[in-house]
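Hi V.,

Quick status before I head out on leave. The structure for the redesign project is tokenized and pasted below; the design run finished overnight.
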């Protein structure tokens, strides 16, 4: 388990773009389960959409990428490195994420070679899948 403070030591993201609140399960280099508490005060809800607030899909994908990044950022070889997107594959959006939801972020590292990591990711609310797919990211010197 990682606290928000420990997450901020691993990721360079800060409010309003840090989208992982805590890590509840971590197998370094293999798997992570994290949580994003979706507040009605999120700045993106002002415009997406004021009368029917929905968390933008691209931000769900970003939250998944941040969670997956934590799974490899904790490895000694990646200390001080920055994870940057290299690809999004077969991402499907199945349910909406709204204010008050607790978004569970899961990432399983499939392969990591030549500095590029591929992960299977899933975001869910109360056991219902909101989004799932595969992402790729590269760990680079910051």
């Amino acid at each position: 388990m990682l606290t928000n403070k420990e997450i901020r030591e691993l990721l360079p993201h800060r409010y309003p773009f840090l989208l992982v609140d805590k890590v509840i399960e971590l197998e370094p280099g293999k798997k992570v389960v994290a949580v994003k508490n979706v507040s009605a005060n999120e700045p993106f809800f002002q415009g997406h959409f004021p009368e029917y607030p929905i968390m933008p899909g691209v931000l769900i994908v970003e939250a998944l990428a941040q969670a997956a990044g934590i799974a490899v950022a904790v490895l000694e070889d990646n200390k001080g490195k920055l994870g940057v997107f290299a690809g999004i594959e077969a991402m499907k959006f199945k349910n909406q994420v709204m204010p008050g939801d607790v978004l569970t972020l899961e990432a399983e590292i499939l392969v990591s070679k030549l500095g590029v990591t591929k992960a299977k990711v899933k975001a869910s609310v109360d056991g219902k899948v909101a989004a799932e797919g595969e992402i790729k990211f590269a760990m680079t010197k910051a």
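Above is the designed sequence. The mean pLDDT is 96.

G. will cover questions while I'm gone.

Best,
W.
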